[in-house]
Amino acid sequence: MRFKQLGTAAIELALVLPLLLLVLDGVIEFSLLMYDKVLITHAAREAVRAGVVLSIPKITSEEIALVAQSYCANSLLSMGPGQTPIVSVLQSADPAFQTPLQVTVSFTYRSLLLNSVLSALSTSIAMSSTATGLNE
After folding, report:
1. For residue 127, which of 42, 63, 67, 26 has the smallest C-alpha distance?
2. Which end of the chain, C or N, has fewer beta carbons within 10 A?
3. Could you give the CA distance from residue 44 to residue 64 in angstroms, rounded to a whole number?
4. How far apart are CA 66 and CA 60, in angstroms?
5. How many CA atoms within 13 Å lie on the side-chain side of 116?
6. What is the pLDDT of residues 50-102, one digit of tens each?
7. What is the pTM of this model?
8. Which residue from 35, 24, 18 is spatially nearest to 79, judged by alpha carbons?
9. DSSP alpha helices (H): ranges in 1-136?
10. Reduced to 3 states, what is the DSSP secondary structure of residue 110?
11. 124 CB contacts (<8 Å, ≥6 apart)?
């Protein structure tokens, strides 16, 4: 009886292994996606903080965007070609006391496995984070 079941474990492994690897890839991809989301959220908050803090002269919108981009530099994880975040800054022309400042950081995440294996599917995910603060 035992000789008839020889090799069944190998066949079962061959059937189950692709599903296990797909689940493992899903866990890794989701973790990387959440990491990037947290990173762009912190970048938006740091840029707003840099923009609303009382300083003379007030920093410009370009300098605020540079704060967010430098926060993300070499930290965002995407498997596509060199992705950079897009930063937009909305503030009044004369940033006076208690006027709002809004920073939005957008980033497109590209998948590791799904992008290379299933290239017919669109596997990029657009993420965006917005932070708002009042000028001091």
Report:
1. 42
2. N
3. 9
4. 10
5. 7
6. 999 878 888 889 999 999 999 988 787 776 666 789 999 998 877 778 889 99
7. 0.80
8. 35
9. 8-52, 61-72, 113-117
10. strand
11. 80, 108, 109, 110, 111, 115
